[in-house]
Amino acid sequence: MSKSLVKAIKILDCFTVNPEMTINELAETANMPKTTVFRLASSLEEAGLLVKERKSSHEVTYRMGLKLLTFGKHVSEQIKYNKVALPHMKKLNEEVDELVHITVLEGNEAVYAETIDSSKPVRLVVKVGRRAPLYAGSAPKLLLSSMADEKIEAYLDEVELTKLTDNTLDNKERLKEEIQKIREKGYSISHSEHFKDTVGFSYPIYNHQKEMVAALGVSIPVLDYSKEKGKVILDKLEDTAKRIWDELGYTV
Fold first, then answer.
1. What pLDDT was estimated at residue 181?
2. Exposed e or buried b per residue across 43-81, where buried means at least 16 C-beta atoms within 10 angstroms of its C-beta
């Protein structure tokens, strides 16, 4: 992390002590030179994270901008659905004894926000925080399908579809076709697209505003896969997802 960014965050931290401060007060609280504080405060103001208010010709104060509320809302929403989803994920994990995960969209990547491992000797393990491209895997593709068409086009214009396995989709037209199929079915399946020798299944998690906020998934070793097992997992995934929808206030 750059030193300027660390210092800017330190400036924002000062407002947890006092909600409104002058440059002199900020410099004293942050223990930084006034010139540095002024430069950083100006940048934070330009970004909408601070608001400058002129009290008089000699007094100017700064306070946190409302844009921070937007960030807080998204963080709060993520904490909420993770908290709601976790007990349902645990129950699903007990029923299928396979890797269960929640994946979220962050920028142009999918991020594994929660994972519960299988107890089997041979199993797939994915650590929380792991990132994946949106074109490979059941959960990433499902999250990609939730984006508006113009955003998908913009994403495809700037991303290079790299083969992660032999089954990774590296043709943009085929990927668009896959996105359309996912939208029609309402769920996503992948066969060794991101992780070799695995099969993934994912269902969407919707909030009360009918937005897809996450993908609930189950991943299994390809050796354990059969059409019958795949159907069982999809049925249980759908039931689990719908229970989470109910708690989040989503109605079909």
1. 97
2. ebeeeebbeeeeeeeeeebbebbeeeeeeeeeeebbeeb
Average pLDDT for the chain: 90
Residue 76 has pLDDT above 70, yes or no: no
Q: What pTM was estimated for this model as a whole?
A: 0.70
Supply the Cα-derived Rg of the chain in whole angstroms.
Answer: 23
- Token representation of residue 250: 């989503």
CA distance 179 to 148: 11
| Maximum separation of any 2 CA atoms in the chain, in Å | 76
Q: Give the pLDDT confidence score for residue 79 in this predicted structure.
A: 64
